[in-house]
Design brief:
By secondary structure, this protein is α+β, with helices and mostly antiparallel strands. The chain contains three helices and nine strands.
Length: about 180
Amino acid sequence: MSTHYFIGIRIPAAVAEEIARARDSWELSTHKRHTPAMDMHITLLFIGEDRFGELPEIADRLADIQQGMFQLQLDGVKTFGNPKTPRIVYAAVLESPELMELQMAVRQQLGSLQMTTDLKPFVPHITLASRWNGGSFTEALHLEKLKFSVDAFSLFEIHPRAIPRYEEIQTYPLKGDA
C-alpha cells in the first residue's frame, strides 16, 4: 500500500482529550474505530498518494500561505451517511470565515499541480468514530461547545497500521494572535 498525505489542523491536546472523554462516555459500540485524541484533526485537503513526486513542491507552496491565527468552536455532534447507520460520527465546527479562507488558500496554492485532490465540498469536522459495526445508534449525543485557537496547520503522512496514524511531516505557523 502506498503512502498517503493530507493537509490539516491538529486539535490541541487538551481539547482533543476532552472530546475523546466525552465520546468514550457515549459507549459507541456501533462503530469499529474510535479516533484516538492524538490523531484528532480537521482535514483541510486530502492529497492521497504522491503519484507525481510533488510532495517537496507541496511543502514549499504551503509555506507561502500568509494567514493570521484564529479561533474555532465546536458545534455539536453530527454524522455522515445514513442517520440510522452512519459511516462517521463527528464533532462539527462552527462556521468560521478564517477557516474557510485557510482551506481556500491551501486549495489555491496547490491547484496547478498534477495531483488529484478530493473534490467533495469542504465540511470542517473532527472524526470521532468510523466504520459502522451494527447495533442501534442514538443521535442524542452531547458535546460541549469547546473553543480553541488555531496557530498552525500541517502536512501529514498517514500510517494506517500505527498509533498515532497521522504524522506531521511539516508544520506551518500562522501569524499573530488568535
